[in-house]
Each structure stands twice: as C-alpha cells, then as structure tokens.
Amino acid sequence: MGENTFGERFKITSFGESHGDLVGIIVDGVPAGLDFDTNFIQHELDMRKSGHSTLTTSRMELDKVIVLSGIFDNKTTGAPICLIIENKDKDSSKYINYKNILRPSQVDFTILKKYGGYADYRGSGRFSGRITAGFVMAGAIAKQILRKYDISVYAYTKSIGNVVDGENYDIDNYEKFINLREKTLVRAINTEKAKLMEELIKKVKTQKNSIGGSIKCIVNNFPVGIGAPIFNSIESKISHAIFSIPAIKGIEFGVGFRATKMKGSEHNDPWIIKEGKIQTEKNDSGGIIGGISTGMPIEFTVAVKPTATIGLPQKTVNIEKMNSVEIEFHGRHDPCIVPRVVSVVEAMAAIVLIDFLLIEGVIPTVFKP
Q: 353: domain CATH number?
C-alpha cells in the first residue's frame, strides 16, 4: 500500500494538488452491478465545497464530478472507478510571493525537507484540504453500497470553539437528522447552538483569525461481529482514515477521554435483552469492544484544529535569507473548516466500513439483478 492508497478490498488512491489542474480519486474493489448514482456523489461534493456561505473561503469551485472509468450503462463494472473535479478558481499569486517564507503550522518546512524543494507548495499542494474532495467522492460510492444494507453514516458539528452541543442524539430517522443539520450553516443540530457557532466564526473572521471545533459521527445498523484484533480493529482502521484528513488532531470513541474520570461501574455497558436481541443498556464503548462491532451504534468524535492560514501578523523565518521576519498572509482561507469537514468524516468512515464488510464477505463482489 503506497502513501496515497488506502484500504484492502475497497481501495482508494488519491491524486492531484490544490492548485494543479484537478484532484481526483481511483476506487478499486467496488462490486459490479451497483446502480451508480452520480447525482448523489455531486450532492456529497456540494456539502464539502467552498463558497456556499460567508463562513467559508471565497474560493468558488464548481466541483462538478467527472466520471472517467468503471461505469457502463449507469452500473459499476467491477473495474477501477476514476472520478475527478477540476480546479478552476485558483489564485497562486499569494503563495508565490511567500515562497521563501515559512507559514506557521503549515507544511512548508516539512515538505521542503522531505521532498527537497520539488513539492508543489501552492495552497499546500498535496497537503491541502482540497484533496479531501476525492475522499468525499469515494465515500459517496461507499454510502451507496451501505444504504443497500440499511446502514447509515452521519456526522454533525458538535462544537465550535467554546460553543458545545452536549446533547446525545438518538435519531432513528436518518433523513430527519440530515434535514435538521442542513438547516444550519455550521451543520449543527441544535439551532440555538448553531447561531452561537455562526456568530463566533464571524467574529474570528473579522479579527483575521480562525477557530477549531469538533465533529461527532454516528453509524447505525452496522452488523455485530465485524472487525478483528489486534491491528485490524475497527477503531484502528477508522483512526487511520480519519487522521488522513488534514487538520484532524484527535479522535475518541464512545465517551472517549471522559472514561479517564470514570469508575468501571460507571463506564461498563450492561448487557440487556431488548425485543429478543442482545444489546447494551447504554453505549459508552461507542459500539466497539475489542476492536469488534457490538451491534450498537458506532460513535466517535474528532477534533479539528483552527485553520493555519490567518491574516494576523506572525513570527516566522525567511529560508532564502535565513533571517527572522513577520508574515501577514492575505490569501483566501476558511475562518473555520469544521462545517466542511463533516462530509469528509462521514466519507472516510463509510470507506473503512465497506472495506470491512467486503473483507468479511458480508457484501458480494457482484450485485445480481
């Protein structure tokens, strides 16, 4: 598995750069005979793209999906599927002006040392959040397969800065959940909290600053007994995928780090029988025990850092002159990327889960008519 490829059976290969001609994804291992819904893929891309509100970067990309291979008569053929979107609204001038100045908390220095100055530095190149559009396209295919098995993956903004939605949502109606989320610009569920989040983002934007937050993801109806110890646990694979998203700084399953303050009697999930099925009374384990699914909802929360590119003066160095300087970046950037990352978190979770189901033979390699 190369640096740009992820997965065992449902395998994705990412390519393209932020300011190159395009970004895309190759998806291998998709069962043949799947009805291919291009409109759904476009819908997922639209959730991730910039320019949809005053809370995002002003970069306006259409992000129209183009299918290059693997589809015939609107069905998957079993061959690799190649999907791309073009980069139309790119402005590299600001990055060229700052070519020799290291932007704080950006990849400029690390890629210089790693690739000897040959890497595309414009908009952070391969390290840009722009490449996650490919993740979303692949995730949309994975979701199309999951919904054949009534498995839903959905995420929402749990917090922006110190504004936190601490409620635990138990929503059986997936469409209702999505409709609630999409009524807010920040993709939160609680409308009052959402307004506070929006106000906070607008405030830091006027201050030429940025803010981070957290995203919670819930998977419903995932079958029990999937996953394996030790290095093939569901937590391990989801964590690997999630940390491949730029700007992710943490992940926790179930109650996560709150477990450090709990006693065993508080954290343990008692087993019960409900409607003839064994399940747990609560779900502090996040639907996973021993790296294997319990049949309860898989729940995890991720931490998203503040956007590194900000307009405030910051200390740094000029690598050409080898002296200390001050940088005040004037390029386009998001004051908060959390709302746009929601769809990416969903996508990466779906990709991992489909891979598990294919590995364990739950999903066939061909869908019969």
A: 3.60.150.10
